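Appendix B, record 7
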Amino acid sequence: MEDVYSWVKYLHIISVIAWMAGLFYIPRLFVYHTSAEIGSDKSETFKIMERRLYKAIISPAMVSSYVFGLWTAYELDAFLDPWFHAKMLFVVALTGYQGFIARYLRDFANDANKHSERFYRIFNEVPTLLMLFIVYFVIFKPF
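Structure tokens (predicted):
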């Protein structure tokens, strides 16, 4: 059974890496998209890149992160551990962050972006902060 746990943990880590990579990259696309003229080839290319990144990488990676992460938690019997609850609070916040990305993606797709390049540069830092907390609780299990 240890072999199954190792594979599930492996798949969880790979999923999280893919999810985080997407969450780090798409706001950078938004930064560059803000400077593209509406209706231009550049703007339309960004729309395609953003949509594909979200649908082909970010969303599937989020789902698989949850599936393999909850499976790992089950194998560890972690569901009643306070550190796990704290970690999941930040994972849920990361999921909420992805919800904002979906909204901004729709805004760009409809040529209705309301935010500046500076906003997206700051917005891009949020997943880093959440990741620091998530990894802290997993590694140190402070309570």
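Remarks on this record: DSSP finds five helices and no strands in the chain. Residues 41-76 form the longest helix (36 residues).
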